[in-house]
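The protein record passed on below.

***
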Amino acid sequence: MFIYTYYILYSMQIHNVQKTGNMHYIYLPTSWCREHKISHDSKVSIEQGGGGELLIFPSLKEKESKKLKLNIPEQDQDIVHKLVVACYINPLSSFEINFDKEMDYTKLLKQKRLINLESVELDKKQITCESTISISDPDSLLKTMVRKIKNMITVMQTSYDNEIISRYEDEIDRSKLLIDKSIIGSLAFQKSTNLKTIDLYYISLISKELERMVDHLILVKAVEKEFLNSILDVISHLQKLLDNTKLLNHKLAIEFIKICSKIKSHKDINYDKERIRLFLINISEVITDWSVTNELNL
């Protein structure tokens, strides 16, 4: 589920440094203070960046997670499934969905994404979830997601154990759900994070493409060793880039584009392999966008 279609970039402002005794200081922009509800008794966090820049963050009081109760007449399994996932990825302490009639949950329980939701209880006329987890580190979740994909490919190249591969796919899907949950909490509910808003945007895009790619990757046969090796090369390189995204620049992005381009498209390629190739190309475009944003020092 992709949830971010825009982001805000603030223009740079120049302020004069003033001095009183041995202390140097600048005034915080009034518009910024108003936006983040900064007053005379507020506190802010100050952090020194790797390039010598000084970063100021509002010390926001996190909003308490809310409880949500919904009453719906729907019996459509697909609609119910989407609604449950939407409730799960939002930062709620609990949610309750009530139905007018009893529902047959047999098919619903087979939904791949629903299987990965912990603490979700299904009754004949009700779905409940208590104490949904709170995640505040989407970049670490993305790194974990990439490592699991790398491990899954290794299993596909060696033993090709269907049970283990299926388990990895479930874990990767779960990682994507937790990334969505973490980013929504960071943006909409002021959950604390050291990441910039633009970083959250790029993390969301990459995790979305990776999840879709894995849906097709699990259908590649063990005999496709050359193809699996080429995918493993791309994922391994992506893992290195994500280890420190602050160092990401256009030169590293170009190198990644070239690695992705080695996965050639031709008329005999099957549907799943072509979709995998296209998803990885999409990721290379996101990496390139991210690298240019970094170089602008926004």
About this structure: The first strand starts at residue 18 and ends at 20. The longest helix spans residues 162-188.
